[in-house]
Amino acid sequence: MHCFACQSAIDPDDSWCSKCGAAVRQRVDPDSERRFVTILRADVIDSTGLVAELEPEDAVSRLEPALAAMRASVRQFGGIVSKELGDGLAAVFGAPIADDNHAPLACHAAIELVRRVASLGDPGLQVRVGLHSGHVVAYMVASEFSKVYEIGGAAQHLAARLEQVAEANQIYVSEACQNLADGHVRFEHLGSKSLRGFSQPVPVYRIVGASDLSSWRVRRARSVSRFVDRAIERALLDRSAGQARAGRQTVLLLGDAGIGKSRLAHEFAQKLKGEGWRLIDAECSPNLQGAPFSTLKRILLSAMDAAAKDPGNPRDPRAELSTIQQSALDAVLDVPISNPQWDELEPHARGRVISDASCAVIQSVASRQPTLLLLEDLHWIDRASDVVVAAIAALAVPGLLVLLTTRPNGMPVWIARCHAEVVAMRPLDDDSGLEMLSDMLGSSQTNADLKSRIISHTANVPLFIEEVCRGLKDSGTLRGEWGDLALMRPIDELGIPTSIQGVIAARLDRVSRQQRLVLQVAAALGPRSSEAVVRKVSQLAEDVLQDCLVSLDRAELLVRIDSDLENSLEFRHEMVRQVTYESMVEKVRESIHARVLAAFESDETWRDDPDALCYHAMRAKDWAKAFNYGRSAAQKCLARSAYADAVDYFRTAMNSLDKTPLTRPRETNAIDLRMEARMAFQWSGRVAEWIDLGKEADQRASQIDDVGRKIAAMTVMAGGQNFYGTPAEAVVLGEEVVGLAEQSGNPGWRNLAQYNLGQAYFLAGRYREAEQTFARARAHLMEPEASAPYGTPPKYTLLLCCMMKSFTHTVMGEFDAAEQLQREAAAIADETGRPHDRVAAASGSGWLMLGRGDPAAAAAVLEGGLVLAQKHGIRLFVPVLACHLGMAYLEQGLFDRARRMLTEAREEARAVGYTSAVLRSSIYLALAVNQLGDVRAAQNMLREARNTARQQGFSGLEAEALFGEAVVTPPASGDNRTIILAALRAAIAIASESGARPLREKAEAMLDRMFAGGDQPA
């Protein structure tokens, strides 16, 4: 532990620092939480120069007025001074109690701060201010005598940097703060500035003044959706308007932020105006809660403006008031008063006169024409106005309809006394939510899944729907114009727009500490949780837990849902869960996940669910358990052929293991894990990562001098090299590994090494050596005590040997042998039923049918194999199957289908990094392009494929490319005929040497036809 003042090391039990004497501050962890807030930093410019020559007392006197003005400005707008810095301060808005207006409030506080310091009349006192909105860790720090609310995190540094670059009496603001306060405050964009400690220039804005727009106008200017539904609420308001003609009616629209209170109220107000009603509208401002009569002033100004615009008899309703009442209104409206009688009144008497005069004005206006008095956001009303509004709402005036809006935490106590009808607003129903989304995104069915996700994510709260859509559009995830937006890329998480984080956090701040604990446990468990698990993890008494659940259900934060199996709990919408989870500091999260993990481990229901156990072990940072459960989850995914998921869990296991202490057992586990993981990476087509697994394992094995594991690692690298490298490199490495494996006496790795080497020979066009090598591996694998590396069943390796040996015999024209091997492969696939085995068998069967000249049968088999590979994510086989399927279409004369399929095969092979598949698909794509009439393009493609195959050592593919060149070259000229003859002879030479009899025979037959046509052998 270190002293906050001098950073000297101190004992946690000390009360004072032995070096500097400062009282020890102790952080109170239970009060620590993550918050999304706005930070204000302000200081006096060149304060050192101002006080350098002064005595200490005089220095304090010189700066204290500015500091006092700063403190008062912050507190006026609901901020908390978190730290004083001698010549300035740091303040936070939106904590410890969340406030969705934290950014506008901070901006208004900054404006007031600059104004107050300037009004001191000391030209030497000039200030600068920086503002930034972001996530912080907020906590209480206790000393021997007091507690201080402090904040930590990177966000405060950006606010400080903005303060340091601000000019005299200027307020610089980050883009995050500007986005949240835009409309409430006017800004000037200053471009991007380089700030100390930030690698990239940061967009900076300057506040140029407060906006005169009302909150409703700001919201309406941002709105991109039209008003939908609310049929029940509109019917209730229509009924109240009808009853108001006979006697005063008061209606309160009650609902959480974003539910649509203002939208409904203004839609209804416009409807009544169209029916001849007069409108008096005002709103309570969060910026003016401390200003007496600020709300009443707005009501009176609107009332007098409405009376002055009366087309029948424009007038000033104050004319009918007594002199003392007129003075009362002048006091509210900030008009100078010269009435001795007013000056003599006591404060409580002045309040009564103000109330009576205000009621008289409203009564006068309503007596001439049906009048709607709309007052919004009653939860922000100042205390002095609250008393007068209560009196107005209780007036017995026919033709007056008072319509109020408020959040649940702001419902005034006098509502019941004025017999108001309370209309509790709820989220939209699903149909209305979808209608709203269709209006914003468009009616296309392509966005149907996204719309459903947004409905679930936002629980149909209108503001949340709109802001989520706006966030997706601003980020470029949705492109186009409102009403016609297209999804540009997949979405993993919808997230929480910063504009509504404070709205949700404010709701969460209304719950008790015990209710928050229940929410935190449920948030750690996920969108849906079991009451039994929440009970076990929260460790609350049963009666306390039930009270919490009832309150949370009533608040529609965590609701009970019907379930036949157990009492289940579900968050009303995902955003509440995310904000709850993100509000926890890391230590609290880890603690809750550790308790969840312990609860799951002791419950048989969860003990066999490594996915959940791995998740909570990771979040609890219990790395040893995360390794074990991640490995188990990966094995489970492999068993159900979920290869992409297996890759993710293997990565989790590897990363977790690397976070445990370095020991030899840890390193052997790390190597074995990578060897086991290779199949998941291989089957899902992550060839480069597959090779990296081998390289990492090889390095670790060398470091601990483990020869056996080094051979295993080299075997894995050799297998990957067949796909990612050149055949020459693959053959050299493969031969070395086979030799080492045979010397080591490990038959499992020897068998796999022999298979890899046979594949390397095949790719190099050395078909006879390939066939012999596959034969040796197959013989070993057919022994009673057959062995294969861990993570690889012996029958799977045997199937691959049969498949590749069948491939080789097919290329060599030995179809009977190929068919026998293919039957063995198919029998193994039928026995195991594994998708990967079935795909491998289909690949070999289709290739054999192509070799036998039955492209239609080949296409049927290959189409089924391709669908199966795509369904199960067996990506390594996709380019091979697609290429062979394109060849089958080509042989059937389906040239356009062949072109499309071979194009897809080539692109997929490139994405995977499957070099030989890229070449083969290019060769046959060229033949399809030639059949479709583009001879020049076909010649270029084949020439490029032939050169690449020659340079990289794919001699078999080089021969196929040469034959293709002969096929697509028109024999119209002597030069072309020379090219054809040269290509055929080269193809025959390579095919003869490699043993590719069918290709040699096709080339020889074409050469014979050339000679029969008059070309003489050279």
Ordered list of secondary-structure elements with their pairings:
Layout: E1 26-44, H1 47-51, H2 56-76, E2 80-84, E3 88-93, H3 102-118, E4 127-142, E5 147-152, H4 154-165, E6 171-174, H5 175-181, E7 185-193, E8 202-210, H6 215-222, H7 231-244, E9 249-254, H8 261-274, E10 278-283, H9 294-308, H10 323-332, H11 340-343, H12 347-368, E11 371-376, H13 383-393, E12 400-406, E13 421-424, H14 430-441, H15 448-458, H16 462-474, E14 478-481, E15 484-487, H17 498-508, H18 513-525, E16 528-530, H19 531-538, H20 542-554, E17 558-561, E18 568-571, H21 574-582, H22 586-601, H23 604-607, H24 610-619, H25 623-639, H26 643-658, H27 664-683, H28 687-703, H29 707-724, H30 727-744, H31 747-763, H32 767-781, H33 794-811, H34 815-832, H35 835-851, H36 855-871, H37 878-891, H38 895-912, H39 915-931, H40 935-952, H41 955-968, H42 974-994, H43 997-1012
Parallel strand pairs: 4-6, 9-12, 9-13, 10-11, 11-12
Antiparallel strand pairs: 1-3, 1-4, 2-3, 4-5, 6-8, 7-8, 14-15, 16-18, 17-18
Helix pairs in contact: 2-3, 3-5, 9-12, 10-12, 12-13, 14-16, 17-21, 18-20, 18-21, 18-22, 19-22, 22-24, 24-25, 25-26, 26-27, 27-28, 27-29, 28-29, 29-30, 29-31, 30-31, 31-32, 31-33, 32-33, 33-34, 33-35, 34-35, 35-36, 35-37, 36-37, 37-38, 37-39, 38-39, 39-40, 39-41, 40-41, 41-42, 42-43
